[in-house]
Each structure stands twice: as structure tokens, then as C-alpha cells.
Amino acid sequence: MGLPRRQRGAVAILVLTALVLGIAWFAVGALGKAPVARHEREIVTGQALRAGKAALLAYVAQYAARFNTIEPGQMPCPESLTLANPGVSSTSCSAAGLNVGRLPWKTLGIDELRDGYGEPLWYIVRGFRNPPINFATAGQLTHNGSTVVAMIIAPGAPLNTAASAGTPTAGCSKQNQQVTTRNTGTLVPTHFLECGTTTGSITSPGDATWTNDRVISISAAEWADAIAGPLADRLQRQVAPAMNDFRTTTSLASWGESFFPNASVISSSVAGSQPENNDLCGDNDVRSGMPPTATAASGQCSTDWAFHSLPGLPSQLNSGGCFTVAGPPQEVRCDFTVVSDGTFSPRINLTAPRIGYSFRYVETSQITIQVDNLPAFPPYPSASIGNFASSASSSNGEGTLSFEVFLPFLTAGSSVRIRIPYPADALLADPRSEWFIVNGWDRFTHYGVSQAATHDPGSAVCNPGGTVTDCMTVNNMPSPSDDKRLVLVLMGRQLAGTAQPSYTLSDYWEGQNASADSIYEIGSVDATFNDRVAACPYTYTTSAGPVQPC
Amino acid sequence: MLRRRQRGFTLAEMAVAFLIVALLLGGAIMSLSAQLEVRNREETLRRLNSAAEALIAHAIVNRALPCPAVGGSIGEQSPAGGGTCTIWNGGFLPARTIGFQPTDDAGYGLDVWGNRLRYAVSGTLGPTGCTGTPAAPHFTSPANLKANGLGCRPNDLDVCASSVGTTASSCNTAARVASTQTVAFIVFSTGKNGAIAAAQGPDEAENIDGDRVFVTRAPSDASAAGGAYDDLMVYVPAGLVYSKLVSAGVLP
Description:
Oligomer: heterodimer
Structural class of chain B: alpha+beta
Radius of gyration of chain A: 34 Å
Largest sheet of chain A: 5 strands, antiparallel
Number of strands of chain A: 26
Strand order of the largest sheet of chain B: 1-2-4-6
Shape of chain B: elongated
């Protein structure tokens, strides 16, 4: 009996060995097929959401920095729901309405992001599409009660709550996402997302009966921080040069003088002069404040032709004088009737207020001469204008323009009409600075000019490269830092502890930038300082040598 | 005699036992091998992401992205001071320059299979975004990166879903996985078959031909369109590079 028992024992060892190996085999196989633990899925989801947010903000920032975009800060459209171009931002989405779709990962320049359940991320945005877009633009979505600019959503596994008991929480509804046509045809957002995707008020309490979405949002503060640097880049490379070109070229051509217009005062003694409400019209002897960038269309800082005369008008010409036409286009018209045959060259004088306080100019090529009922075209053949004289008063900034109209031989009874457009907005006409005006970024910018560069320089001297006695200084700017004629300081988003609207500069700008003097500063952006400074003159140094944008 | 014979196993028993053991071991080894492969790819992807972070960290400290390393540059960027790169698209990760580990004895960054990690960086700017005429190169020159500004967009690296239909300069008719004028740099591994030229399909060959066009897609065996593919790639948009540099105060 002993021997047979030993034999059975040996077989038992063999069977046990096989069993152990079998279990090992099963365990190893199961390792690869084991359902991924929920927390692992959540980790993947969290990583994807954070990567999506970083990429989206980076894209928005780079878009804001591009010099040919009129709407810096614009958020991209989501991918089209039609799946016509997966991963690519739709070229047409609502300007003001709710835009829901998948995250346009190809447009952002990243790999496709999926949540822990393998679902592509979704993206919701409302507004932030068309000008004006600026720091005052409020988020138009709501995430768990907070106002946000955009949201990136991980859909999670498809839910079926159609037959669930109870009443869905506010904003949610019973729905079945487990439909076979989920990923075909035109995507239906509610087949992926729950609770508020059609209203823009998203509630994501975490795992709950009615939703398993995971949401990461972009607040207005995060959006503002992302685009502030690129905006400052454009201030230095586009706006400051455009303003400087007004000084060196446009103002000289229009008004016979090179000048930066005065700044608009911010003072508690001037009601409504806070940055939010400022009239953006330069004030006498003010060289540090808000930029004088009110547009003619705004009705602020009128530079409409206020006085016009026809000195030395020959008796062969009859005129009822010049008169203002409300427009559009707004203009001055001077009509003449020829009393007896001859050639004539009447002179027209015009004056406009506040020229020294605004970026307005006259484009003399737009002055037209119309004879009889012939169509106007500048100039009428053999008729022309010339002998210009212009000025900007150093005392009150008033601009004058005077020119002669050289008419051809005209017979008695002929009639002539001269049309002179109102002074126009130079910065609006310049594509480098148009974005700055149309989006209202001027309300977020401190403007400083040296007296020497205004229409009223007095004895002040600011000659970069030479005597810089009366130039402005920007501390921490690459040398030379004390030769600035123009300084622009973009405020960041509102810092903690400040109150706005306010007449106090330090509620908007920090350090040296919060005083109305000629000293400014560049600092590291942190919780207590978020100004960004641009100035003229300024020089970049490339590998090929220096480049001076202004 | 009978007792001694009874202590052993019959030939049939042994055969059955060995067969079972062989089957079980085979299955286990195959399963373990697949697991190992998954882990190798995950580890390589982790190294690629780590390399991308190290490249951006280098840019923050040195105010420009490094150039690729070339054969003989012992894992340093080429030229040593950066600027106008010796090659833009066909080089290796400059592991020594950016402080990446692990490396081989020559100083080049490695994937988990011991193949050198590759790196391509943009050397050409696009027609829109910059103001005026930007100085070149952009991303690898501290002075030019600062002087040209944040609006400049890369205009060379093109990442496609397939090599079919590509040209030497663009995805052309092949689908793109990243929009044009987006990608600032690429880091990639040639995968497990990286050292075996004969095993590489057309899509993998596209990544090492030295031109500006790259392919990234899901892995496949040789029977797939585009051939065998096991490369792993991380590409980084210019916007992310800029945003890191702005956050660090390097730009604007």
C-alpha cells in the first residue's frame, strides 16, 4: 500500500505544478486584459484636460501675437459637429452664441487628447470671437456657478439615464447616450455631454446619477494672463511704431509739425476721467494719462472743421461760403459760381479744434473738386490743389489748413464744388494699430509723451542719441533707457486689493507706472505687478544687427 | 525491482506533463512579452515627453531652443553655440546640451530599445504673423527669437498621418495631424525596429529621410498601408513654446 500511495503523491505534485503554472498563465493573461481601474481612468482624464487647457491657452496667446489679426484674444471655434474635418477648428461658428464641439487638436498643434474612457475631449466657448475683445470682456459661460470664458470637457463613458429613477438635477435631463449612431453623421452633443451643454451653464458635481463629465474651465483671469504678453509684444512692434509714424510723418504732412498729441487726464477733479469712462481726448499740458485715441465716430474729442473762410475771393467768383455737411461722409463743402469767364485759384482756410490732442489727420488726396455736374474725381482734369499751409497751435492745439484750388478756364455760369473731409483717425487707418482701437485696448493703456515731442515743446529737449534732458525714462529697459519720447504701459488684469473704476493710477498700474511723471518701469510679472511696457525709441538686436521698430 | 519502477513515471505521463508545461509556459511568455512591449512603449513615450520638457527648459534658460545633435557631436547641439543649425530635421536629441538621461556612451539620448532619440526643430518662418522681415533663424537664436517676436510662426515641420502623397516639403495630399505653421519642434523614437533598416516601412522611412515631413500614426505590422510602423513621436506647437517663455519672463 505504501508504494502506490507514493505514486499517487508524485502525480499530485505534477498536477499541482500544472495548476500553479495554469494560475500563473491566467494571471499574466488577465494582467493585460484587466479592466482599467477607475482611478487610473481619472488620472488619464485629468492629464488630458490639463494638456488641452494649456494647449488652448497657448494657441490663443500665439494667435493674439500675430500681427495680422484684428481680434487678439479670440478663442478658436470648436471642431465642426459634422466631422467634416476632424481636429480642425470650424471656420464658421457663432460670434456671440454658444459653440459646442470637440477640441480642435490639429489647430492647436497637439496630438489628439482622449479621456480615460477613450473619448475625445469637447470644448465649449461663447463670445470672444469678434471685436471688441479686451480685459473687460466677461466670460459668458457658467461652470458650477462661476463665470468662465471656455470649458474643456471629458465626456466619460456613455450614460443611459433614460430609465433612471428620480428627477434630474437642474440643468440635467434623462438621456440615453448608449446609441449605436453616436459617432456617425453629425455629432449630437447630448450623446456625449450632460447637464447644460445647450445653455452654457455647466454643472459638473463629479460622479453623479445624471452626469459623469469632467470639466476644466478657463477663467477670464487665466485668459487675460495668457494674452497680456503677446499684447505687449504688439504694442511695442505695432502700436508704438504706428504712433511714432504719426509723429514723424502723418502729423507733419497734415499739420506741418511733428508731434505726439497730449494725453487725456485721469484725475478726481475731472469727473468721468477714470480709465473706464475717460473721453480719450488729450488735454492741455497733460503728458501722462490715457491715450488720446477717441475715434471721430465716437463723437468724443471733436476735430470737425469749425471755421472756414475764403480769403481774397475774386469778384468773378460768387460763393455762398463753405458749409458743413453732417454726412456721411462728414465734410466741408465750398461752392462757387463763375460770374464771368476766367481762370481762378481761390484759397480755402479751415480750422479744427483739438488737433494737438488727438491722432487725427487730413488726407489731402481725399479733397475733391467737382465742376458743373461732372462726377467728382480727385483732381478734376487740369484742376488741382496746392500751396498748402498748416499748423497746430502750441497754445490750444487748434489745427489750421489752408490751400489754393487751381481751376481751369471756366465760362460764366459754371459751378464748382470743393469737398474737404473731416480730420480722420490716423490709428484706425493704420493696420498696425487698428486692432488696438477697435478692441478698446486703449482703455487699458497708460500713455506718456515727453513734452519735447508734443505740439507745445517749449524749451524741452528730447533728442535720442544726443541731449535727452527732457526724455522719459523706463527703468529696467535695455540701455539707453532714458531717451524715450513715448511710453505705453498695458495694465494687466485687476490685482487683488485694488478698486476699479478709480481715479487713482495705482488701482490700474504699479510701481513707477502709477505716477503721472516721466519715470516708468519694467518689472517681473507677479501677484503685485503685471504692467507691460512699450516705448519709443526702442532697439532690438538680431543676429544680423540692430533693428529699430520705432 | 517492482518498487523502483513504481517510484517513477511512465513515458506517457511525462509526455503529457511536459506538453502541459510547455503550453502553459508558452502562453505565459507570449503574454509577458506583449506586456513588456506595452511598457516599453509607455516608457519611451515618457522619455519623449521628458525630452520635450527638457528642450523647453533649455529654451527658458538659454532663451532659444537648441539645435539637433549630429553624428560626432557627442550629444551636443550642432553647432555648439546653437543659432544656424548644422541640420534642422535629420538630427538627434542633443541630450548632453539639455541634460537628458539616459544616454549612450557617446552622449546621445536613448529610447528604451537603445536607439537614439531624434529631434527636429523649425528653422523657417511663415509668411504671416511676424512684422517686417524677421531675422533667421528664429527658434534657435536668442537674439532673433527676442527681436522677431511672439507673432512669428514656424513654417517647415509638417506632421502627417501617412507618407503616401507627401513631398519633401509638405504633407501635400496626405492628411495632416497638426495644422500648418504650428509645430516648433519634434522629438521621436524610431521604435523597437529602429535599428533594423529592413524592417522599416515607408512611413517610418519618412521620419529619417532628413526632410521636414514626418509621419505619426498608430503602430502596425508590415501588412498595413505605409508598412510596419512603431515610431513614437511628440510634437510641440510654437504657442506652447512661447507661452512657457512668456511665463518665465524670457519673452516678450
